[in-house]
Automatic annotation (TrEMBL), chain A:
All copies of domain Sodium/hydrogen exchanger regulatory region, residue ranges: 577-679
Any Gene Ontology biological process: regulation of intracellular pH
Top-rank taxon, per record: Eukaryota
The family this protein is said to belong to: Belongs to the monovalent cation:proton antiporter 1 (CPA1) transporter (TC 2.A.36) family.
Signal peptide, first to last residue: 1-26
Organism field: Paramormyrops kingsleyae
Cell compartment(s), UniProt: Basolateral cell membrane
Protein name: Sodium/hydrogen exchanger
UniProt region (Disordered), positions on chain: 34-56, 665-690, 724-784
InterPro entries: Cation/H_exchanger_CPA1, Cation/H_exchanger_TM, NaH_exchanger, NHE-1-like, NHE_CaM-bd
GO cellular component: basolateral plasma membrane
Automatic annotation (TrEMBL), chain B:
GO molecular function: calcium ion binding
Localisation: Cell membrane; Cytoplasm; Nucleus
Name the UniProt record assigns to this protein: Calcineurin-like EF-hand protein 1
Organism, as annotated: Paramormyrops kingsleyae
Key word Nucleotide-binding present: no
Amino acid sequence: MSCWTRRGLLLALALGLALLVPMALSLGAAEKTRRSVGNGHGTGVTLRPDDSHGDGHGVNKTKKIFPVLTFDFAHVKIPFEISLWVLLASLMKLGFHLIPRLSSIVPESCLLIVVGLLVGGLMKLVGAAPPELQSDVFFLYLLPPIILDAGYFLPIRPFSENLGTILMFAVVGTLWNSFFIGGLLYAVCQIEGTDLKSIGLLPCFLFGSVISAVDPVAVLAVFEEIHINELLHILVFGESLLNDAVTVVLYHLFEEYSGLGMVTFLDVFLGVICFLVVSLGGVLVGAFYGLLAAFTSRFASHTRVIEPLFVFVYSYMSYLSAEVFHLSGIMALIACGAVMRPYVEANISHKSHTTTKYFLKMWSSVSETLIFIFLGVSTVAGLHSWNWTFVTVTIILCLVARVLGVMGLTFVINKFRIVKLTNKDQFIIAYGGLRGAIAFSLGYLLHPEEFPMRNMFLTTIITVVFFTVFVQGMTIRPLVDLLAVKKKQETKRSINEEIHTQFLDHLLTGIEDICGHYGHHHWKDKLNRFNKKYVKKCLIAGERSKEPQLIAFYHKMEMKQAIELVESGGGVKLPSAVPSTVSMQNIQPKKSNSERALPQISKSREEEIRKILRSNLQKTRQRLRSYNRHTLVGEPDEDGWNDLLLKRQKIMDMDKQISRMSNYLTVPAPPPESPTLSRSRLASDPQHYVPKPTLGNVPIIKVDLASPQSPEYVSVVDEFQKEAVPLKEEDEDAGGLTMKVPLGDPKKEEQEQQDGGKEQQRLMRCLSDPGPGGAEEEDEPFLP
Amino acid sequence: MGSRASTLLREEEIEEIKKETGFSHSQITRLYSRFTSLDKGENGTLSREDFQRIPELAINPLGDRIINAFFPEGEDQVNFRGFMRTLAHFRPIEDNEKNKDPTASEPLNSRNNKLRFAFRLYDLDRDDKISRDELLQVLRMMVGVNISDEQLGSIADRTIQEADQNGDNSISFNEFIKVLEKVDVEQKMSIRFLH
C-alpha cells in the first residue's frame, strides 16, 4: 500500500514538475518569439516577405525548403496557459487523493495553496513572472460556477427554516465585524510608534468590510470534508452566501468616500437603501432569470441535447446582469438556481439532469482548485509590504470580533428559535468563519493611487486568509471530533419518517391555523398551494404538472434495485437487447440473487415510497421524460441488463399477483407461461406494440421495454380518468397481463397505445445515478 | 367554566391553566381571545362547526382529525381548558423545565406526549395500535385521489413492515417512537407561541 502512495506522490510531483518547467520555459520562450517574429502572424518563419528581422532566413522571395515542422507558440499562448493551469489543478487534486492519510489531516484547500506557492516560486526561479489573481478573472470566471453549484443544490428546507438566523448572522454579524475591526484598527493605527498614521478612518473601515466577510468558497471547501450536521452547515454556509450584499454595499460606500474623507448621515441612509436595493434586486434578477429558464425548459422536449445549456447560460446571465447594476451577483445566482431547479428538473430528461449535475460539480470543483492555487501564486507574485503591527492586530481583531459577534447574536436569536443554539454550536459557527479569495480580490480591486497602503492591505488580507484556511481549516476537524459535535446523518430516511414528517407538517399547519398564528408552516403551506395551482401549470410542460410522480419513482426504485442486483449478484453480463428465455433462466436458478434481492427490495421501496409521498403532499416532483435523440443511445449493457432484471422482478411480482387474484380473473393465465411469452414477444419485437383496446377505467402503465434507443419508458395513460377500479376489470392477454397499477409494482408487460389523440405520458425510468451528493439532492421538492 | 357569553378569564383559572399546561400569562390571554373569536355561539365552548369555520382548516387534509383531537371522548363541545390542554402539546420544550420537578407528571409538551398526540391522530379506534387500515386512511387523506388503492396499499404494507417489530402487522406506540427517533420531534411538533 505504501509503495503505491509513494508512487502516487512521486507521480504527482513528477507530473507537476514536468508541467511547470515547460510552462515556465514556454512563457519565457513566448516572450522571445513574439518579439522576434513580429506580431505573431503564426504562419511560420519562412516564406515571409522582406520585413522579417532577426532570423536571417531567406528574404527576397527566394524559395525555401518547405518547412516540415515549425514552432509557433505565440498564437496559442493564452489558451495553452489556461489549459495548463487547469490541468495542473486537476492533477494536483488527483494526486492528493492518492495519498490517503494526507487528505484526512490537511484539508484540500491548504494543500492547493501550498501547491500554488510552489508553482509561483518555481516560476520566479525560472524567471517568468507568475500571474496574479486578477479580480476580473476571479469575479467573472472563477466564482460563478461555485456559487451556482451551491445555489442549485441548496437544501431549501433547512435554509428556509433557518432563514431568520442566517440573515441575522449575515447582515448584522458582518456589519458588526466591519465596524469593530475597522474602528479598532484605526485606533491602533493612531498609536505612536507604528508608522500607520497615514491611514485614515474610512480606509480602515473599508479594510474592515473587506476582511470581515465570511467566504463561501473557503467554507465550502473546509466544511464539506468534516461532514458536520446539517443545521450548522447551513448556518455558516448560508451566512457566507448572504453576506455578499452587505460586503458589496459597504465596499462601494467606503471606496467612494474614502477619498473625500468623510461620510455624512445622508450617505449612511443612502447606504441602507442601497443595501436593500442590492440584496432584493439581486434576488429578483435571479428569480426572473430562473423563471425564464424554467419556462424555456418547458419547450425543450425536442432538443434534449442542449437542455443543460439553458441552466448554465441563464444562471450566468443572471449573475452578469446583476453585476451590471452592481447588485449582488451572488444572491442573484443563488436565487436563480434555487428557483429554476424544481421546474427544470421536472422538464428535462434524465440524462440532461445528470449532465447538469456533473457539469456543475465539475466546474465548481475546478474553479475552487484554481482559486486556491492562484491564491498561492499571487502570494509569491505580489508586491508585499509587511507591517507586523497591522497584521497581528488584524488577525487578533478578526478572531475577537467573530467570537463576540456570534455570541451576542446567538443570545438574541435564541429568544426566537425553537431549537436553541448551544455553546458548541456557537463555537463551531465562530470558528467556521473562514476568509478567502473574495477578500483578496476585493482588496486587489483597490486603486493604488487612492490607497497608497494597498500593498499592505493585500499582504494583511493574504495573511489572514492563510491563517484562517490553514490554522482554522486544519484544526476544525479534530475540534469537531473533540467536542463531539453532531455529525451529518448518513442514513437515508425511512418511509416511516417520511410519512410521519409530512403528517406532522399538516398537523402543525392545522394547529397554527386554529391558533390564528401565522407561522412558518402556514406560509409554507400557502406558498406550496400557490405553486401547485398557478406556477407549475405555466412552467412545467404537459400533463406532468398535474400528475403525481409515483410511477416515476416506482420505476426509479425498481431500476435502482435492478442495478443493485447486478452489482451484488456477481455482475453477470448479459447481451444487450436479447433478453432470451435462456438468459432469464440463467438468472432464475441463482438463488443467492433472489435471496439478496428480497431485503434489497425493501430498501429501494423505501426510496420510492418516500418520493411518492413527497410528491403527492407537496409539489414538484422530478419528472423524467423519455429521451428520443439517437445521439444519446443508452449504454447497451446497462439498459439491457436492467431491462432484464426489471422484467424478472415484474415476473416475480406478477406471479404473486396472479395467485392472489386468480379468483377475479375471467381468463386464467398460466403463470409461468405468460411471462415467458410476453418476454419473448417483447424481446423479439423492439418496436412499439399495436395497442390493445383498453377498458375505459383501467389505468394502464405501458412499458416500452425493448426499444433500443432508450431505457424503459413507462407510459401512464389513464391516470386522470382513474377511479377506484375493482380488480375484476383486469384484462388478460394470451401473452401477458394488463394489470392495473397494483400493489406498488408496475405490472406492465403490454404496451398499448391509446386510441386517438390522447397524448401518452412517457416517463422514463431513470437509471440510478449515485453521483456526488447522492440522490437526495435531486429529489427536493420546491419546499419540502 | 361559565355559561355567560362574555366571561373574562378569571385569575384563578389562568393560574390553573398555567400550572397544567405551562403557558405564560400573556399566551393564555391571547389564546383566550382567539378562543372567544372562534366561539360564535358565545357559550364558552367550541363545537365542531366552530372549528370548521376556519378556512384553512377546511383544505387541510388532516383537518377533520385535528378537530376531533380537541374533543374528548364522545363529547361535542370543548371548553377553554380542553382547548388549552390540547394546544399545550405544541409548546416548545424548554430546557429548564426538564429538571424542575421529578415527582410531577410529565409535562404535556414532553417528547413522549407529543408523540402520543400524533399517534392518537392515526389510531382512531384507540386500541393503541396503528393498523393497516388506519394507516391507509391517513395515507389516502394526505395523498389525494390520484393514487390507486393498490399503490397505497403497498406503501402501507411497506411502512408497517419497516416499523413492525413484534410481527403483529400493526404499529404500536413504542414502535412508532422508535421509528421517529431520528426525527427532531421537538422542533417538528412545536409552535412558537409569541409571548
